[in-house]
What does this fold into?
Amino acid sequence: MKQMSFMALIGCSVLLAGCASQGEVVFCPTISAPEEGARAFVRSDNVKQVFDVRLNGVNAICTRHNSGGTMVALTVGLKIKRSLAEGVENDVVAVPMMSAIIDADQRVMSNQEFGYRVGFDKGSDSKFPVADIEQLVPAEARLVISLRPAY
It folds into this structure.
């Protein structure tokens, strides 16, 4: 019985030590996507086929940053489809994305462009990958994410 209690204590200690290394979880700033940026058409790398890319949900975990802002760890779900009538070959599509930090006066404080590459097997018509993004959002600001058309 003592050994079992000791093992439970060690297990709880490891769990709590893992939590202690994390920052303080706080409410996230407003995160949005403009309607125009929720869908884009992107031409693939190899076959030059057009892929329909859509934002498909967002999940965020926010922690307090030493600067007074919020560190946002964002997971963005994507829905990527292609027409097999236009091609079934192996292909790669680079999904161009961007984010912007908007202040309380609705001015762009900063923006960042980044991409996410997705491979398609022969005969595959859709994928649902997730892109992980980390962004520092100053106090009283909000985060906007968007797809960028590249076609």
In short: The CA atoms of residues 64 and 70 lie 5 Å apart. Confidence is low (pLDDT under 50) at residues 1-21. Residues 23-147 form a domain with the Immunoglobulin-like fold (CATH 2.60.40).
